[in-house]
Design brief:
The complex is a heterodimer of chains A (285) and B (333). Chain A is α/β, with parallel strands linked by helices and 285 residues long. Chain A is built from 8 helices and 8 strands, in the order H-E-H-E-H-E-E-H-E-E-H-H-E-H-H-E. By secondary structure, chain B is of the alpha+beta class. The chains are: A alpha/beta (285), B alpha+beta (333).
Chain lengths: 285, 333
């Protein structure tokens, strides 16, 4: 039976490996984006409260708390184990300005209006769908103070000279489409980055700015190792989702997967992960 | 000075050493001038900074804490107390132990090393380098025994870092032998900290890496057998104070859970040989990933699945043999 998109399930089941993968991917993405707030040269003057939606085990939230001791940095995530982990990290590091709460981002958020100066979200494609995107953007708008900033970063789709890698990410796009999780009914791509400016305008945000981050993970780059580990782990984690949808047989998947590993180890391998950050403001009253 | 302000006097003595003042400022993520303002009373630290201050001064903790409470009697003592009266910074939180144990229980064999190593190194990095001053943690694992049945080198198999290092450290074709500090730790079977790149040169066999100013290495034991060691490198000199050394040792104990039992070797079966310099190794192993790729591609074409672990093991063993032969041809003829 196909997963019910209305139930908003992440295509990867919760597990220790998933937790470890999320713990790894956060710093990898932050480094690839050039830092915590590369689009504003890490200048957070005038900002004292930050919310991170879908914070996972809290890497980004904790990094903000560490770098900006004057800022109250809050993270929310639907996963209780992730939040438990994030809280343990905050305590172990001695941070009293990092806070974590279990919260379903697709439901009304348990924060008063105008609670935050900046709301951040990264890689939400996996658990949202076209019905839920407007809701979460409306909630982000509500909890931002007038003049506050909303920023969101999403992946287009990884590009490479490996046919096997391309086919596997193609399967992912088709799976997202087949389960109603993206804005591309044909399943040609991840289907969100082209839609975000329109969605942000419809939510009432102004001054849309866009910044692309092309993360080069070709053979011989310092980033290769991290993205190799990322792909080799996440595609194994997502395999049961593909199998359930019948998009490939197990044999076909395993063959593509092994070829992907081979291609990524080749001296000739080239790869680029195109991420886009959109940042917008809530109009002053 | 008012007696309730005695903690400021003590802090003033501590930061009379400019290096210590900078170290404290870094540990607290504040400007060093802020410490001066606390000392002269023109500014008061926030509660969380008081806690960080205490954490950053483990040796003066017992003297400093009562003095701070004289001026700030409303501070929550629970923030400072620990179960065994030692600094909390040297204790791995129970939640972390539980997370790792759950991961061991619920993760299949093929994913266990990656999952458990990733969880432990992520937790260790956060706790050992909470303010992202710059740290790399690497796992060096004993290579499988050579034909003579003895372990001859270690290889860096997994690593995580905070800037200036990459979040995921590249697994280079780098073998460590008796000439390395990791090899020395394995031979001695006990942790060693080298406090400062500028000091004690020649005492331990250290080959300093880029950005590395101090280092601490602890062996990974199970049933009195060794799998390898955990290498912590910091951008800060004298970073591995006794409480951090204790923490490194505890994380190394925990790391035993990432390995299979057959990856541990009795110390008498580990007789490391000298391995060539990094530059020599890099030149010789320039195509090691391509070799792995070739093995995997051939397996796909012949429809004979070979796991990535099997392909890597084969290439690493070939490379180790080549390097040992190049290093000491007489011994291995």
């Amino acid at each position: 039976m196909l997963p019910d998109p209305a139930k908003n399930r992440f295509p990867i089941e919760e597990s220790a490996t998933e937790m470890a993968w999320v713990q790894m991917i956060g710093p990898l993405l932050t480094a690839g984006m050039g830092g915590l707030f590369a689009e504003r040269s890490d200048d957070l003057s005038g900002i004292s409260t930050v919310l991170d939606i879908g914070c996972g085990p809290g890497d980004w939230t904790l990094s903000v708390a560490s770098k900006y001791p004057h800022i109250q940095s809050t993270g929310i995530d639907i996963s209780e184990p992730m939040i438990k982990d994030a809280n343990a990290h905050a305590r172990a590091r001695g941070f009293s300005n990092a806070h974590f709460r279990v919260m379903d981002a697709t439901q009304p958020l348990d924060f008063p209006d105008a609670s935050f100066d900046l709301v951040n979200a990264r890689a939400m494609t996996g658990f949202l769908n076209p019905q839920l995107w407007p809701k979460i953007l409306d909630e982000s708008y509500r909890i931002l103070r007038p003049g506050g900033t909303f920023r969101i970063t999403e992946l287009s789709e990884p590009l490479s000279n490996s046919a096997a890698t391309g086919k596997l990410w193609g399967l992912f796009a088709r799976a997202m489409s087949a389960t109603g999780r993206n804005y591309d009914p044909e399943g040609r791509h991840m289907g969100i980055v082209h839609q975000l400016p329109k969605l942000l305008r419809e939510a009432g945000f102004q001054n849309i700015s866009i910044r692309g981050h092309g993360i080069d993970y070709s053979a011989g780059t310092p980033t290769w190792e991290g993205w190799y580990q990322n792909f080799s782990v996440v595609l194994k984690l997502i395999k049961p989702f593909f199998m359930k949808l019948g998009l490939a047989t197990e044999e076909e998947f395993d063959r593509l997967y092994q070829q992907m590993l081979a291609d990524m180890h080749s001296d000739q391998f080239t790869g680029l992960a195109p991420y886009f950050t959109f940042w917008v403001t809530k109009p002053d009253e | 000075m008012d007696s309730t302000q005695a903690w400021r006097e003590l802090l003033g003595k501590i930061i009379a050493d400019p290096q210590e003042q900078q170290r404290l400022a870094n540990a607290l993520s504040i400007n060093s001038a802020t410490l001066d303002r606390w000392v002269n009373g023109s500014n008061n630290p926030r509660p969380y900074n008081l806690r960080r201050l205490i954490s950053a001064l483990p040796e003066q903790r017992d003297e400093m804490l009562p003095l701070i409470l004289l001026e700030f009697p409303d501070l929550n003592l629970d923030d400072f107390e620990t179960t065994d009266s030692h600094d909390t910074s040297s204790i791995i939180p129970s939640e972390f132990y539980m997370r790792v144990i759950e991961a061991c229980a619920m993760t299949g064999k093929s994913q266990r090393f990656w999952t458990v190593s990733n969880l432990i190194l992520g937790q260790a990095l956060g706790q050992l380098d909470p303010n992202n001053l710059g740290m790399a943690i690497t796992i060096a694992q004993c290579m499988p025994p050579s034909q003579d049945g003895l372990v001859r080198s270690l290889r860096e198999v997994f690593g995580r870092g905070t800037p200036p290092w990459q979040p995921t450290l590249t697994r280079e074709a780098l073998f460590l032998g008796i000439e390395s500090l990791a090899g020395y730790v394995i031979t001695k079977g006990r942790p060693i900290a080298v406090e400062d790149r500028a000091d004690r040169l020649g005492f331990y066999p250290v080959r300093w890496e880029k950005w590395e100013e101090s280092a601490c290495i602890a062996p990974i034991w199970f049933e009195e057998r060794l799998a390898g060691c955990m290498i912590e490198s910091s951008t800060q000199p004298r970073y591995f104070l006794p409480f951090r050394q204790a923490l490194v040792e505890r994380y190394a104990y925990l790391m035993m859970l990432a390995f299979d039992a057959q990856h541990f070797y009795a110390q008498r079966d580990i007789q490391l040989l000298p391995m060539p310099d990094r530059e020599v190794q890099t030149q010789r192993a320039v195509n090691f990933r391509q070799r792995i790729s070739d093995i995997l591609t051939e397996a796909v074409q012949q429809q004979q699945p070979v796991t990535i672990e099997e392909a890597e093991r084969l290439v690493w063993q070939q490379l180790e043999a080549e390097l040992l032969l190049a290093q000491s041809p007489v011994t291995h003829q």
